[in-house]
Amino acid sequence: MIGRLNHVAIAVPNLESAVALYRDMLGAEVSDSQSLPEHGVRLVFVDLPNTRIELMEPLGEKSPIAAFLEKNGRGGIHHICYEVKDIAISSAELVAKGARVLGDGKPRKGAHGNPVLFLHPADFLGTLVELEEVG
Amino acid sequence: MIGRLNHVAIAVPNLESAVALYRDMLGAEVSDSQSLPEHGVRLVFVDLPNTRIELMEPLGEKSPIAAFLEKNGRGGIHHICYEVKDIAISSAELVAKGARVLGDGKPRKGAHGNPVLFLHPADFLGTLVELEEVG
Predict the structure, then answer these.
(1) Which tens digit of pLDDT belongs to each residue from B32-52?
(2) A47: how many CB neighbours lie within 10 A of its CB?
(3) May I ask the CATH architecture of the domain A5-133?
(4) Where does the record place the VOC domain (chains A, B) (predicted)?
(5) Do B76 and A126 touch (CB under 8 A)?
(6) B134 in contact with A at a CB cutoff of 8 Å?
């Protein structure tokens, strides 16, 4: 079912500091920042040869990563995202096997414009798993 | 400096359950398990098309992931590993820029037989970062 690791998302308290760390300290290529108000984050992509790291800062009062950053003041790995070919089929299969999809259970449009959903961390080894449909 | 994302390591309380989850629930290819007493873990590799996930269970009384699992009973993402071409050069550059290398500061032989070192999570957005020299 799962294909490529699409990205690893790291929640950070300050995006500019995080960019400096990855660009200047670790020598990686980092994109310009994008604000995604509908997702409650401002983010950049760290482009690695085989995948990317997303650095996300909370945006707005209802940011879904605000609570995470209250617990993890310096930041931390927030989720990992695996690609699937057909998110409706994958979702139905996972639910049939007992996994829980967060929210209303339906895919929504993700940060890259593709359908995504999140799986309950308690069902996946304490890790928040995003599935993204990449055709 | 950093190249490919070599792996994401997830600490798990029970390796067989974790294998079943990735193999049967998520439909991924999972290797046979390996015991690495010198690293205090027993692990499998989940082979994705572009990188791999390591699922690690504590092995022995001094396992370096035991404390992590005491705090995170269901498991959780323990570290991410980036590849570098020359670990001695990378290490010297990072230390010169103020980053802290864990342990005695010297690379040691990692789980794949290559030189590795770990960087202090407090210096890297709350994430434990492993660097692995891949020639």
Answers:
(1) 999 999 899 999 999 999 999
(2) 12
(3) Roll (3.10)
(4) 4-134
(5) yes
(6) no
